[in-house]
Automatic annotation (TrEMBL):
PANTHER family: N-ACETYLMANNOSAMINE-6-PHOSPHATE 2-EPIMERASE-RELATED. CDD domains: NanE. This is Putative N-acetylmannosamine-6-phosphate 2-epimerase. The lineage of its organism: Bacteria, Bacillati, Actinomycetota, Actinomycetes, Propionibacteriales. Belongs to the NanE family. The keyword Isomerase applies. Converts N-acetylmannosamine-6-phosphate (ManNAc-6-P) to N-acetylglucosamine-6-phosphate (GlcNAc-6-P). The gene is nanE. Keywords: Carbohydrate metabolism, Isomerase.
Amino acid sequence: MIARTGGTALAALEGKLVVSCQAYPGEPMRSPAIMAAVAQAVVQGGAYGVRAQGIQDLKAIRPLVDVCLIGLVKRGSDGVFITPTVADAVDCVTAGADIVALDGTARERPDGQPLAASIAAVHERGALVMADCGSLDDALYSVDAGADCVGTTLAGYTGARPVSRGPDLELLAELVGDVNVPVLAEGRIRNPQDAQACLTAGAYAVVVGTAITHPARITRTFVDQLHA
């Protein structure tokens, strides 16, 4: 299947669900083939977009789905680790991403390049950028650097804000009110009611991961309830 242009792909997400298809290292589902099957399943269920991590996963998923593919690379787990370098951003586009998700903070990056350099490299190759943010300052910085959309992905994980029990609706409302690009809600969206609350708060689209694509965590919620 042919990937859409970045602009067309982003437009198709308005008011819709994006599903994050990622498995953690060491888990049974940590395989590009399995993640590709999961991506097909969520698209069959009605998702208008897929968010996936890792070049091999992106390459496996791209030929199988014709919805918006948001791609990223994770390097480690501290500091800037979401698509941290210009080279990583370029690799995501080459692997088929319509939109590249990357760290949208002003923190120093491993390659010493500014955020704007990664964004420019993605734009040069015809794709768009989603900046994963943890605060309003992050979002404003990212938009100034050229980001096409922003997400609440890092809310509670950068030290700028406390970790909320559910989606950070307060930050979402701030971003919707103060930035001039689409705002995607992501992070701790655990059920359809949370997702609807995000849209009501003004989210352009909603990204859900663990609650749909992480069997171990989903199973644990049932086990914990039964043992309560």
